[in-house]
Amino acid sequence: QKEVEQNSGPLSVPEGAIASLNCTYSDRGSQSFFWYRQYSGKSPELIMSIYSNGDKEDGRFTAQLNKASQYVSLLIRDSQPSDSATYLCAVNRQRYSTLTFGKGTMLLVSP
Amino acid sequence: DVKVTQSSRYLVKRTGEKVFLECVQDMDHENMFWYRQDPGLGLRLIYFSYDVKMKEKGDIPEGYSVSREKKERFSLILESASTNQTSMYLCASSFGAGRNIQYFGAGTRLSVL
Predict the structure, then answer these.
(1) d(CA A13, nearest CA chain B) in Å
(2) DSSP secondary structure string, A28-92?
(3) A32 in contact with chain B, both atoms CB, cutoff 8 A
(4) Which of A92, A98, A101, A103 to mutate to test the interface with B (most CBs of B within 10 A)?
(5) For A55-95, what is each residue's pLDDT tens digit?
(6) How far is B106 from chain A (nearest CA, A)?
(7) What does pLDDT average to over chain B?
């Protein structure tokens, strides 16, 4: 079973700080990597996708991928209380178009 | 705009009942997925479909079946509901080729009493 590992948290940061979320994966053949945000009682929503080594920035969010080390991270700059949610890391499987999800890291941003 | 619609937000059923969860997408996606999400266990794939009338087992298919008669609709069936199937059920869809981004419906919280 290919796995995706995340710290469950909670990760607590003050408003305005940088939040750093990490994810490691076991399948070296994975090519697509995603970060989803999930508010309590809601469904996951995509916030970032990354396919190549390096950094990808979108507003306050930066995804970082290192395939050699098999890790992907998400940085959230200028964290806001509205960023408080569980962040799910997802990695594609070789089989069809399925994804393996990590169990998520809960982020708490305090005012 | 991307739209995946699940027929019910909340359902309460009795043990032994046959339960149907419906999912419809309007994005002409080839792939559709059913997950369940439980505290501490994360998102687990039950079944998926990559084409009309095609289905593949995911990681936890026991106790479930699926139906995909039309491209836009994917149904999850609990043949005889049990209390351990109480969970949040999430439907998702994606294009068949390319970068595999999955879009989720709002979810159905099912309670089996």
Answers:
(1) 22
(2) TT---EEEEEE-TTS--EEEEEE-SSEEEEETTEEEEEETTTTEEEEEESS--GGG-EEEEEEEE
(3) yes
(4) A98
(5) 999 999 999 999 999 999 999 999 999 999 999 999 998 76
(6) 5
(7) 94
Q: Is the pLDDT of residue B80 over 70?
A: yes
Count the Cβ atoms, other than its own, within 10 Å of residue B57: 13
**What does the pLDDT average to over B23-28?**
94
Cα–Cα distance between A101 and A92 in angstroms, integer?
Answer: 9
The confidence band for B99, taking pLDDT boundaries of 50, 70 and 90, is low
Most A CBs within 10 Å: which of B59, B102, B108, as the mutation test of the A interface? B102
Query: Given an 8 Å threshold on Cβ–Cβ distance, is A96 in contact with B56?
Result: yes
